[in-house]
Predict the structure.
Amino acid sequence: MPFKLPLLFNPRRIAVLLWVILPVILATVHGKPCLAKMKIALICSGSVTDGGWNQEGRDAIERVGKKLHARVSVVERVSPVWAVNVMRDFAMRGYQLVIGHGYEFLVPATQVAAQGVKTRFAVSGADIAKPHIATLNFDLTEPSYQLGMLAAMLSKTGKIGFIGGEKIPSVTACFRGFRAGARSVNPHIRVAQAYTSWDQPALSKSQAEAFIQQHIDVIYQNVDAAGKGVFEAVAQADRRVKKGGDPIYVFGCNRNQNNNSTCSKFTPASAVIRLDRAFMQVALAVKTGKFTAGIKPENLHNGVCLVVLNPRLFGSVITPRMRSALAAAGRRLKAGTLSVAGH
Amino acid sequence: MKIRQSLLSVGATVMACAAAFGAVLLVLWACGYPPLGILHRWLIGAVGNSYYISNSLAETCPLLLTGLAAGIAFRSGVLNIGAQGQFLIGAMVSVGLATRWQVTPAVMPTIVIAVVGGAVGGGLWAVLAGALERWRGVPVVLSTILLNFVAFYLVEIILSGPLQAHGTSAPQSAEIQGRYWLPVLIKFSSLHIGVLLAFCLAALLYVVNRQTVFGFQTLVTGLNPRAAQLAGIPVARQQMTVIFVSGGLAGLGGAFQVLGVTHFLIANFGSYGYAGIAVALLGRLNPLGIAFSALFFGMLDTGALRVEESSLGLPHNIADVVKGTVLLVMLLLLAFINRRRISPTAKVDAAATEGR
């Protein structure tokens, strides 16, 4: 009787098993760096459904994640008190890049980076350099300048207004640009400013209504989730405007808000930050090992900050003359022959 | 009988926590989330390893101190709901004393001055409400809540002015230099020495409440101020002392947070003051109970962060839902227990009234 190998020791079976298992073992043992996905985390201070800064941040990082096939984690409503723990936790779990989405994350990121972790940190919306941190300094001054020009051209009363969520560098820069742009068209124009809140639509709505009562007919808002209140106030005011009367307009900020569901017919333009471009640059730098700390200016010149007009209002609200004036200003701003600081 | 009551009270709290957690997980399960997955991630994030445990403990510190602040005030009948403002003022004074308004460059004295200054700042801010009631008849419950808003905007103004960091227009303080930070107990964690002190303070308050004349007078004043006055207790002075201590504890929380965890200050500095009220109520105003409920809330908060950044897509604010549900369930349970406890007496009273 010939000797029979037990079923498990059959050479053919072993070969097949090895054929199947070996690649998996090799991939596990040696191929980890090849298979391991890049891991990126985004930390937001507000809700990622705010329709502005935070939502755009979430959408942008997800686009970056898809393009780079990276694993993306987003944590919202993180107060600076928690930021150190959250950032350190990501660093300990091997995330290659952690982005703090707001100036308030600069100090926490610096503290964690100083502990010698391998993770790279970027902070968006801040304006000072810190060791080991890439500071993404978004400058909406120039797009806001163009919005100011458009506001002055649209305004019938010679009064326009700006509502910000908080007096922080990125927001006051918007006001400065807006005022300078408006005055470049109409030196006598009155530009009001008010700062309400990021997350209280009722408060922003009251402020917008107060502006409208003061005959302000163009409002530029940078209040994120509270922007719904401004859009609502403008929509209600426009419903009251009689046929042939002069409507009230509102501008969006941070995100393209021209298609907002409340009053897109009265939103001629938005100052937009292409966060995906900025995040992609940092992520690629980390991936290729070319990450450097320091301030990264993100503005009109590198195409991260720009004005987006509402094409549905071309002709009816935004005339060809306005478009050409804005385009000319954009070209001059990019070329450096026009400076917002000069105004 | 006393032990039975204590056990009943602890049991009710534990049951409330478990029932609330269960109810929230049930709702999440109905919404399509995996309850066991959530629970697993929550536990990992709260007590998964020494790092997470230390984070949970660090998160407990401000909750414990604001909880003690609310607890001691409520016990003496002073409805101080302004712990948030006192917490902020404490943090502001502390960060000021450790950065711009330094008295001495020496390390240890600066830390001590910053901690004590924060506590005194919080205490004085609370005394403002006490003084308004004493001399102008403004109810503390009203003035403390309104002073929260005043404190918030005051801090924002000061952070945009004298305490603002150089080189930025953002309303935030300069970063406290590393040598003035509170020492940490575990390397690379936020577990600072203030956490230990906070737990010691809870124990001390427990002893003061139980064993001292001050503690007894506080209790009597809280139960019946008129009777306390007739018994010769200086009620007004007693309440003023309590409100100062209460504000001081909240201010100390702010000081520890800024010197031990964040090392800088912005106006939007968390809402520990409001959470402290819930902590105090869950702890039944007992300092040891408050310590446990603060620990529970701290673990809820840190664990929820892990739930959020997982693939489940749940925001960490789910922890706030659990906290609210815990309080609701506990109130229901206590109402049920009290009803059962007083029912025989009520029967006797009813019989006496009817002349039977």
User: Anything to note?
Assistant: Residues 22-35 of chain A have pLDDT under 50 and may be disordered. Chain A touches chain B at residues 41, 45, 73-77, 79-86, 88-90, 92, 103-104, 107-108, 110-111, 115, 126-128, 166-169, 172 (CB under 8 Å).
